[in-house]
């Protein structure tokens, strides 16, 4: 039976690696295996994520696992499953709400599908820097409503890590908005992104992530809305040799947890769990800034050219975003949206 489980895990990992554009080497996760035997744990916490642990914000899941094991004296085991081992985000969200799994580090672009208020972190030019992100996280009046937004569905947000600052990876140079209007951008299957690109007036294609490599290579799309970290680690810069820094939002992995499971956890373990997640998430966000700088350096060394929009073009994008603010301000709650805006600006 144990060999069967290992075989099934290897098969799942193979398809996950292949589908999202990472190495096909199924031993890729070997270096992250626990250095302890978790079989004797009293409590188990299954934590899912679609990304690769080479991304600092994803690798935090393993650091959380190891610290909680040590600090709980082996009573609580965090079974971290990156690389879509448990399925795509929509499937995993259903499992999380049902309690079939206990936790999920959900991409911020998909978070608004859980509760509209979670879309605040993906609105253009609202939380557009790591400094604003830290202010948002550490201001209870801003974070607490965000944390509690999905409680009616049995889900609480306890923190978030990141995967960098959003921009455009393209196969042709994009120095201005005029250049951008010639590009067909791939965007995520997410409501805020769709509304933003409609408001900006850009050509875009909503496309699942596994379809992106072939679409870029064949010219079906010639632009990609994502971050330098993801574009570097997933080899998108091999085809898209230009990147325009927009800094319009921060890519996050929003740590969601089944509230019923959390409440059943003994009080001492709950305190250890929440404090460890908080500390390691903060560390991961700092490491994300460092990793982004490193990925940009490596990309430049390989010949990728980076551009910045001028102030006039940036101001134009913000102006064009007003319909998005109007629509999502209503969905988020106008008072909450105004409070976030005023605090961060």
Description:
With 345 residues, the chain is of the alpha/beta class. It has helices at 2-19, 56-71, 89-98, 108-111, 130-138, 140-147, 177-180, 191-200, 212-218, 228-233, 259-264, 267-301, 311-320, 322-332, 334-344, and strands spanning 43-48, 76-81, 103-107, 155-170, 184-187, 203-206, 223-226, 242-258, 305-308. It has 15 helices and nine strands. The chain has a single domain (2-344), classed as D-Maltodextrin-Binding Protein, domain 2 (3-Layer(aba) Sandwich), CATH 3.40.190.170. The radius of gyration is 20 Å and the shape is globular. Strands 1, 2, 3, 4, 5, 6, 7, 8 and 9 form a nine-stranded mixed sheet that branches. The chain starts with a helix and ends with a helix. α8 runs antiparallel to α14 (322-332) and α14 (322-332) packs across α15 (334-344). Mean pLDDT is 92; it is low at 1-26. α8 links the parallel β5 and β6 (203-206).
Helical coverage, percent range: 40-55%
Oligomer: single chain
CATH architecture: 3-Layer(aba) Sandwich
The helix-and-strand class reads alpha/beta
What is the number of beta strands? 9
Full CATH superfamily name: Bacterial extracellular solute-binding protein, family 7
Descriptors:
345 residues; alpha/beta; D-Maltodextrin-Binding Protein, domain 2; 9-stranded mixed beta sheet; 48% helix; 19% strand; disordered N terminus
């Amino acid at each position: 039976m144990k060999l069967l489980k290992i075989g099934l895990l290897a098969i799942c990992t193979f398809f996950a690696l292949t589908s999202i554009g990472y190495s096909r080497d199924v031993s890729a996760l070997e270096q992250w295996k626990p250095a302890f035997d978790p079989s004797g744990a009293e409590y188990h916490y299954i934590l899912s994520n679609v990304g690769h642990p080479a991304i600092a914000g994803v690798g935090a899941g393993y650091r959380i696992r190891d610290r909680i094991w040590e600090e709980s004296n082996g009573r609580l085991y965090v079974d971290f499953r990156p690389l879509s081992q448990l399925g795509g985000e929509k499937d995993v969200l259903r499992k999380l709400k049902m309690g079939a799994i206990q936790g999920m580090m959900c991409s911020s672009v998909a978070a608004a599908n859980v509760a509209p208020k979670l879309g605040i972190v993906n609105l253009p030019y609202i939380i557009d820097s790591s400094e604003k992100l830290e202010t948002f996280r550490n201001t209870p009046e801003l974070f607490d409503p965000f944390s509690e937004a999905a409680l009616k569905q049995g889900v609480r947000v306890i923190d978030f890590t990141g995967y960098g600052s959003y921009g455009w990876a393209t196969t042709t140079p994009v120095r201005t908005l005029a250049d951008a209007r010639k590009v067909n951008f791939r965007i995520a299957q997410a409501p805020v992104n769709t509304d933003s690109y409609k408001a900006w007036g850009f050509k875009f294609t909503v496309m699942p992530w596994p379809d992106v490599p072939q679409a870029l290579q064949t010219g079906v799309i010639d632009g990609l809305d994502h971050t330098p970290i993801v574009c570097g680690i997933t080899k998108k810069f091999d085809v898209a040799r230009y990147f325009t820094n927009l800094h319009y939002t921060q890519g996050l992995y929003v740590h969601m947890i089944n509230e019923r499971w959390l409440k059943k956890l003994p009080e001492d373990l709950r305190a250890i769990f929440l404090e460890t997640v908080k500390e390691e998430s903060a560390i991961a966000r700092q490491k994300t800034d460092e990793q982004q700088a490193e990925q940009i350096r490596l990309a430049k060394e390989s010949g990728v050219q980076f551009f910045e929009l001028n102030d006039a073009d940036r101001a134009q994008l913000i102006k064009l975003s007003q319909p998005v603010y109007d629509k999502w301000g209503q969905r988020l709650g106008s008072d909450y949206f105004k409070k976030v805006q005023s605090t961060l600006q």
